[in-house]
Amino acid sequence: MNNSDLVIQARGLSKRFGELTAVDQLDLSVRRAEVFGFLGPNGSGKSTTIRMLCGLLLPSAGEIEVLGCQIPRDAEELKRRIGYMTQRFSLYEDLTVGENLEFLAAVHGLPRRSSRQRIDEVLERYWLADRRKQLAGTLSGGQKQRLALAGAVLHKPDLLLLDEPTSAVDPQSRREFWDSLFELADAGTTLLVSTHYMDEAERCTRLGILDAGRLVADGSPRELMDALPGHPLLIEHPQPRQVQRTLQGSPDVLAMAQIGNVLRVLVANTDARQHIEQRLRSAGISAQIEDGEANLEDVFVSVTRKPVQAQP
Question: Looking at the keywords, is ATP-binding present (predicted)?
Answer without folding.
Answer: yes
